[in-house]
Design a protein that fits this description.
38% of the residues lie in helices and 12% in strands. The protein has helices spanning 42-56, 63-68, 78-86, 92-107, 116-125, 138-147, 171-180, 194-203, 235-240, and strands at 15-17, 23-25, 30-33, 129-133, 156-158, 187-191, 206-209, 225-226. Helix 1 (42-56) crosses helix 4.
Length: 244
C-alpha cells in the first residue's frame, strides 16, 4: 500500500485474510492506543530535549537515527552518539540528568494531540473496549494520565513494566487484547511509529498509522490505514471497513 489518507492495504471492507488465505468476516470490538506520539506528543519534546544537549556541545542529533528508534526502548543510544560526535567520553549519569532537566521544563504543558479525546469518547459510545499499550514505563505515563484525566477512558493499560520485550515485539499487544477479552483480529491499534505498528500487526491486530511531526517521513506501507490526524475523523468510519 502506498501512503495516503484513508488508504486500505489490499483487502475488501469487512474482511481479513486468514493464514490459509480464506476470507473471514471481521467485527471490531476493541481499539488499542499507543501513548507517546499518539495520545501525547512527548516524542517531539523528547527529541528537543535530547537535541538541546547535542547543541550545547555544538552538534545536532540526527533526525533519521532518532525517528527509527521511536516507539521502542533502547533503540538508539544518544549518549554514545554524542560521545562519537565530540570525540570524548560523555558521562552517562550527567547526560541522563541533563536530559531530565530539559525534558521536565518542556513536557508538563504538552496538550493532547488533536482528535484524541473525541476518539476516546466515541469508542465508549460505540461500545468498544479501549486499551493502552505503550513501550514506556508506567512511571513515565502515570503523571500524564493523572494530569489529563485520561485513566478513566481505558479498560486496560499495559506498559513496559508488564512484558520482557517492548515494541516492535508483539507482547504488549497480545497482552492488551487478552486483557480486553477480544481476539487480535477483533481489535485495531492506533500508532504513530513503525515499531508500534509492526508490534500490532505481528500480534494480529489491524493497524492505523497516525504519523506525527517526528514520524511523518517514515514509510507506513505496512499499515492497513494511514490518516494524517485523528482530528475531525469519526472512529466509527475508520473501523467500519472491517465491520459487516
Amino acid at each position: 500500500m502506498g501512503r495516503g489518507v484513508l488508504s486500505l492495504a489490499g483487502m475488501s471492507c469487512g474482511t481479513i485474510r486468514s493464514e490459509k488465505g480464506e476470507l473471514e468476516t471481521a467485527m471490531i470490538k476493541a481499539v488499542v492506543f499507543d501513548f507517546d506520539g499518539t495520545i501525547l506528543d512527548t516524542e517531539t519534546v523528547t527529541y528537543e530535549a535530547m537535541n538541546g544537549i547535542f547543541r550545547e556541545r555544538g552538534h545536532e542529533l540526527p533526525m533519521d537515527k532518532w525517528a527509527g528508534a521511536i516507539g521502542t526502548l533502547h533503540g538508539f543510544d544518544a549518549c554514545a552518539e554524542l560521545s562519537a560526535f565530540t570525540g570524548e567520553e560523555i558521562d552517562r549519569a550527567w547526560f541522563d540528568a541533563r536530559f531530565g532537566e530539559l525534558y521536565a521544563g518542556m513536557v508538563h504543558q504538552v496538550p493532547l494531540l488533536p482528535g484524541i479525546l473525541d476518539a476516546l469518547e466515541e469508542a465508549k459510545r460505540l461500545g468498544l473496549a479501549v486499551g493502552l499499550a505503550t513501550s514506556s514505563y508506567r512511571a513515565w505515563i502515570e503523571p500524564h494520565l493523572e494530569r489529563l484525566d485520561l485513566r478513566r477512558h481505558f479498560d486496560a493499560i499495559h506498559t513496559a513494566d508488564d512484558v520482557e520485550k517492548v515494541k516492535p515485539d508483539p507482547a504488549l499487544y497480545r497482552l492488551a487484547v487478552r486483557s480486553l477479552g477480544v481476539e487480535p483480529g477483533e481489535a485495531v491499534a492506533i500508532e504513530d511509529s513503525l515499531n508500534g505498528l509492526r508490534a500490532a500487526k505481528a500480534a494480529g491486530l489491524y493497524g492505523i498509522a497516525v504519523p506525527n511531526a517526528m514520524t511523518a517521513g517514515l514509510d507506513f506501507s505496512e499499515a492497513d490505514l494511514v490518516v494524517p490526524t485523528l482530528d475531525g475523523q469519526k472512529l466509527e468510519m475508520l473501523v467500519a471497513r472491517w465491520n459487516d
